[in-house]
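Working notes for the structural subgroup meeting. M.R. asked for a predicted model of this chain before we commit to crystallization trials. I am recording the input and output together here so anyone reviewing the notebook later can reproduce the run.

Input as submitted:
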Amino acid sequence: MSWKVVLAILTCNVVMMSSSYTMIIPFLPLYLANDLQADPDTVNIWTGAIFAVCFAVTAVMAPIWGKMSDSRGKKLMVMRSSSLIAVAYILGGLVQTPLQLFFVRILQGFAAGLWPASLSLMSAYVPKTKVGIAMGIMQSANICGGIIGPLFGGVMAEAFGMRISFFIAGSALVLITLITLFFIKEPPRQQAEPGAVKAPTASYGSLLKSGTIRMLLLCTGLTNMVILLLQPIMTLYIGQLRGTQENLLMVSGLVFSFSGIAGAIAAPIWGRQGQAHGFFKTEVISLFAAGVLICSQFIPSTLIPFAILNFIVGLGFSGIFPSANSMIIVNTQTSERGTAFGLLFSAQQIGGTVGPLLGGVLATFIDYGYIFPIAGSVLVCLSLFLFFKAPAEMRRNPTAASATVQKKRANINKIKEQIVAELKAEAAAKQDSASAAASAGKEQH
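Returned structure, recorded in token form:
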């Protein structure tokens, strides 16, 4: 299959995946309070626990699913995850108590892995010279779903209640399963990288020996911790800024979408810049920018300036994950990328486990506004640590490396052409010599 066709199909899948997730997850605190009748004094604790348990289970399972995608097939892992998540969403719309939702989130954690499986499948098709733009488009699709989801979910929740959102999300995941089954082929392992020797599936230990991989795990884990530290309290903070709970789902969905719109615009740009100037540079810059902007979100005391800042935050955030995903592809072989993406996703889920729990505790004891500078400072410190401590292999420019390879190939081709020319000249000389000898023999007779 053409990598462009695969990218188009997976882009559609990712939009549906992300929108189905974001149409329900940001509103879980209100779902707990309004539909599941959670005690108001324990809503923050339940929210943290229900967010965290899914990420904790996913952190354990993600490397296993990633390794299986290398050994059993990348397409199979996409279908496994999408079908099981569909079941989890439908059950989420049927639960009656916070404890039941807690167990459904455990199932969802076991099923998770659709995003890294999709990235792994895409990486088997995309040429290395197009990695940046492909990862940028995939991330943009992920963010676009993040725009559609809260808006659509907010409208549906206001009109029909939260439960209908779970059923719609489940239907979207069923559609992803069917599209993958009928329209995407499993990439031939031998043909994923032309000329490459078939390699055994990578072990976790061999990948973790790489300083680049370890640094990327740290970056994505802490970034996701910051995201999930803020996400559970964002809707409640928006209500606090407005001073009313009226139409809160719809308004908070709109504010969520501002960050997504910015990210959808910026992600492909970050991807192109990373391909041209180095993914390491875009990673450091986007981490620092996102951190500073999040710190500033505690300043507004009204909703409109906060919403504008949320848009600008999306511009910074959208460069972090595509740069990390691109560096994974650049620094691994096709036969080990499923395992590598599984480890990366596991690190994100560990961050996602810590983030909601920490956010729930902080929201219980301090004002929501003070959580923003705490979260932003983590990313600022992370960007500085990465800038000073990253290994040399992580800093290399993929374009420069590609240019070096092309130069070597050009030199080899030039040498080959010279050898061929010399061989032709030698053959022509021998033929002339033989012709001259034959002519001399005829004259003697």
